């Protein structure tokens, strides 16, 4: 029986991935600091769920134990201290983000070698790309080869770059089979939608769902900053295809090339709500006065560049943003209703 270990499987992408692996017939073990997945029961996403802190090397040792002599065919390293712009760009969480995620990765990569795992996937981020290539909202450059000279705009991005290098170094020195994917803003159902760690698609859906007709929603910044968003089901498909080919280890972008402004994204959520809602772009001193920190906007433009993925994998993502936003809005709208009951 094929078996897989999903580290961070109590989270958004990890939960979707673990569910898919289980549906494929894998024996799936999840390890997460959370006691359970926020939305799914264990039997839907795994065969074994270990609650543990992967910053602790003893827990990581335990994480790799299974009834198959610890010999995992596939390991997915998704555990990280992460969140959207409101979490990683305020500066308040920089030390914890770097310390927590680096410790997890240092422990995990070492244990992968010790246990002779078949292959490990590491989830990096588009946040590792240099800030100077993402200043023009209409023409950002996120080609894989543009990573150096390095200049990420957040400590979260620097940690991702360090950990990419860590996994690649273990490949060179210990022959660990690795795959490094750089995720570009992944969104969808069963993800964080409230609380401060949510990303723009979930935030826009929540705000539109919570607001009465004739009301206004806040959108951070001037709304002209651009991003692309990949629905989580295609993210999982892209990860599995990448993981299961033998010739290319990355790093490679895993994202959508459908770039929109954040105001366009907000308008999509408003349209899906069917309500007449206006946008209030808030930034600068007004934002500082209201929230006590600078408006977390991040880079001015970002879009996935999928040439390399298409070349190597012969497959490309295709779900239009609006389609993914429809199912996401429906789900978040339900969560809002459940919360206000
Ligand atoms: P998520 O926060 O939902 O999942 C991460 C999981 O890691 C959480 O369940 C969390 O509890 C767990 N975790 C954190 N610290 C831990 C610890 N010390 N021990 C054990 N578990 C711990 O995030 P996600 O959106 O599912 O992202 C998964 C991975 O993909 C992360 O590495 C993230 O940095 C990366 N990524 C995500 C996006 C995105 O848009 N979602 C974009 C770029 C990169
Ligand atoms: N989160 C959020 N909430 N963002 C908002 C909001 C809001 O209410 N209003 C406007 N925005 C703007 C942010 O200021 C930012 O300019 C843009 O929407 C996108 O924000 P996020 O979706 O939160 O994050 P990001 O795209 O800057 O970074 C995300 O993607 C990276 C990969 O591309 C994060 O999830 C990172 O962790 C991830 O690595």
From TrEMBL:
- What's in the keyword line of the UniProt record? NAD
Keyword check for NAD, yes or no. Answer: yes
Domain NAD-dependent epimerase/dehydratase, residue spans: 4-255
Could you confirm whether the keyword NAD appears in this record?
yes
Q: Which Gene3D superfamilies match?
A: NAD(P)-binding Rossmann-like Domain (3.40.50.720), UDP-galactose 4-epimerase, domain 1 (3.90.25.10)
Tell me the superkingdom of the source: Bacteria
PANTHER family, sorted: EPIMERASE-RELATED (PTHR43574)
Can you say what this protein is called?
Nucleoside-diphosphate-sugar epimerase
């Amino acid at each position: 029986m094929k078996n897989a270990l999903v580290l961070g499987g109590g989270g958004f992408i990890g939960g979707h991935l673990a569910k898919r692996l289980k549906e494929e017939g894998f024996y799936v073990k999840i390890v997460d600091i959370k006691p359970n997945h926020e939305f799914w029961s264990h039997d839907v996403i795994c065969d074994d769920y270990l609650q543990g802190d992967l910053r602790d090397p003893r827990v990581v040792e335990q994480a790799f134990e299974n009834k198959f002599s610890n010999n995992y065919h596939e390991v997915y390293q998704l555990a990280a201290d992460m969140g959207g712009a409101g979490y990683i760009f305020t500066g308040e969480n920089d030390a914890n983000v770097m310390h927590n995620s680096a410790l997890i990765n240092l422990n995990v990569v070492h244990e992968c070698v010790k246990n002779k795992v078949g292959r490990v996937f590491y989830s990096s981020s588009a946040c590792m790309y240099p800030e100077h290539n993402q200043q023009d909202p209409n023409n950002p450059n996120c080609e894989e080869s543009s990573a150096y000279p390095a200049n990420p705009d957040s400590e979260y991005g620097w940690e991702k770059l360090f950990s990419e290098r860590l996994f690649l170094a273990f490949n060179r020195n210990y022959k660990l089979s690795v795959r490094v994917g750089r995720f570009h803003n992944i969104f969808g159902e069963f993800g964080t939608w409230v609380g401060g760690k949510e990303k723009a698609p979930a935030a826009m859906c929540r705000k539109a769902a919570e607001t009465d007709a004739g009301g206004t929603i806040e959108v951070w910044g001037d709304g002209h900053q651009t991003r692309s968003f990949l629905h989580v089901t295609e993210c999982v498909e892209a990860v599995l295809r990448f993981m299961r080919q033998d010739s290319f280890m990355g790093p490679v972008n895993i994202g959508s090339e459908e770039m929109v402004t954040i105001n366009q994204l907000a308008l999509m959520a408003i349209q899906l709500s069917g309500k007449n809602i206006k946008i209030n772009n808030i930034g600068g001193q007004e934002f500082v006065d209201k929230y006590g920190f600078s408006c977390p906007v991040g880079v001015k433009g970002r879009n996935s560049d999928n040439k390399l993925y298409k070349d190597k994998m012969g497959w490309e993502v295709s779900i239009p943003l609006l389609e993914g936003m429809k199912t996401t809005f429906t789900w978040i709208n339900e969560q809002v209703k459940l919360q206000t009951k």
